[in-house]
Amino acid sequence: MTAKHHISAILFALGLSIPAMAATNELTLDNVEKVMSQGPRLVVMWSLECPACFDEIELISQMLREQPSLAISFISTDDDPSRIDEINEVYASPALSNTPRWVYAPRQGAQLRYKIDPSWQGELPRSYFIDQAGKRHGHSGLLTAKQLAMIVARIE
Amino acid sequence: MLIRLIILLVCWASFSANAWHTKEHKTADTSCVHSNMMCAKTVSSVVDKTGRIWSAWVVGKHLYLNYSDDLALNYSMPMLVNTQPESVSTRGENRPKIANDNAGNIYLSWVTPLSKRFTANVRFSYYDVKTNVFSSPVTVNDDNLLTGHSFNEMVVTPAGDVYIAWLDGREKVAAAKQGKRLRHSEIYLAHANFNQKNTFFDNNYLAKGTCVCCRLAMDLDEKNLPMVMWRHVFGDNYRDHGLLTMKNKTQANPMKRVSFENWQVNGCPHQGPAIVREVSGAQKNRIHMSWFNNAPDASGLFYGYTDDNGSTMSTTNHFANKAMNPEHPSLALNDSATKRLQMVWREFDGQVFSIKGMHSTNGDSWSAPTTLASAKSGVDYPYILRHPTGNYLQWHIQGQPLALIKL
Q1: Which of B292, B322, B378 lies at the smallest CB-CB distance from A119?
Q2: Is A64 helix (H, G, I), strand (E, B) or coil?
Q3: pLDDT tens digits for A103-155?
Q4: What is the ipTM of this complex?
Q5: From the CA of B148, how many Å to the nearest CA of chain A?
Q6: CB count, 10 Å around CB of A101?
Q7: A53, B193, B210, B364: which could form a disulfide with A125 (CB 3.0–4.6 Å)?
Q8: What is the pTM of this model?
């Protein structure tokens, strides 16, 4: 039994539980529709190959530090399973601990992109504000402070 | 008798292809630890005067080179380029580059990601066909900085002058020391000539203010000096294309803007352009160009040409349907009178990837696009190989043997 298991056992005996570590979930053709229709929510699409995406992640991380309950999800569009450690390294940021985080299923990048939005040509960062009715409003490139403020007002 | 002969030939051809692949290749993913060409995510090829197709590809931390004398039906045993393992970028547009000179020597350039995110070095090795020896891989960028050096492109003159251009981040490091943050990259150009034992790559600054995440495109001008086309950032994040020619081996002429769709996006298009120059005939020195753009009223693929190195552009031809996710145009010339200029690109309709193609005599008008090949998944970007028997589309799907399709 590992130390972590010992602690778990003690906490369990005391009627407590360890906070679950958020896991990275696989975005598939079967679940993408559901993930992309639960609003109001901001969904941020990013990639390890996109320097501007890291500016966006940093900007939103800062918001989440101040308002951890904002309804924001992240989706990595890297559909290469050999990069999962690099993706998880980004998701390991404490600011993102409460946010649902997703990664494209292996080799399904084009299919998922098309299902999310056939008019999206793959440029990144790409964000979707999903409204109360589940409708997606897409934006390419970094969100401006003004755009973010408008979205935050609707996902608080 | 003739029918029996044809059947025998077909059987032999399929047997020899299968025999090779069953002997050398297992399935992709699970067994991709050895020199198995089918495991490669991307394949980069060049054709020599004899019709031999040389292909460079990556498995694990190794770059391999092999060749085919029968239009990719059979390949030679792979040769290891880098004996010391190193990461090699082989994703999307950021893949190894291959070129040759008139003597048939092979030039390889690739990008090695480094420890920090978005840092990399441009690497190079030269394969001497006479001695059958690879030069030890060297780092082309000479700044010795942990910063970005990527999206390398390479052209080689018939005499063996090798030019490598890439997106460079050394100015970002300099700016950071002054507390500033640069969001664009510069283009640097390196030159060497291994045939003349000039094996040191000088580094020369060409341009600044480029988009940081799209491949460059290169060709040679009439004087065998390089020309570079790339996605630039104009004004407030308008990502259109620039073209520059060289005054000499080290100094660039001013950049000329050659696309005007005005796609304003503060992000990564991940789509670079294509360029090819007419080397003979009535349109000698015409530079044909193709690119992707995604402005609200101008989304899809575009083609245009210039007869004066980018000072003036032809009417732009907007083709390919945005709804089909068109991407990665590739251009090539050949000797055919009616199909001198050929273009291929990739589309995806939600279910099927298709490689589309069309042709033109001089760029003024184009044939209707046709579907050259299609598959449900894993289709690599299309490239045109100029072969002595005509042009071929390189059709690559990871996990399957490489195939060539006559254009």
Answers
A1: B322
A2: helix
A3: 999 999 999 999 999 999 999 999 999 999 999 999 999 999 899 999 999 99
A4: 0.88
A5: 11
A6: 21
A7: A53
A8: 0.90
Give the separation between CA A112 and CA A103, rounded to whole angstroms: 11
Enumerate residues 104 to 143 of chain A having a beta carbon within 8 A of any beta carbon in chain B: 107, 110-111, 113-115, 118-119, 121-126, 140-142
Give the helix/strand (H/E) hosting B358: strand B353-360
CB contact under 8 A, A115 and B350: yes
Q: Any idea what DSSP says for residue A14?
A: T
Condensed to tens digits (0 to 9), the pLDDT of residues A64-112 reads 999 999 999 999 999 999 999 999 999 999 999 889 999 999 999 999 9
Tell me how far apart the alpha carbons of residues B141 and B132 are, in angstroms, rounded to a whole number.
Answer: 26
Residues 6 or more apart in contact with residue B315 via CB below 8 angstroms: B304
Contacts of B165 (CB under 8 A, 6+ apart): B152, B153, B154, B187, B188, B189, B190, B206, B216, B218, B226, B228
Say what angle helices A145-155 and A51-66 make with each other, to 10 degrees: 50
Residues sharing a CB contact under 8 Å with residue A110, sequence separation 6 or more, in sequence order: B325, B348, B353
Q: B44: closest CA among B193, B152, B194?
A: B152
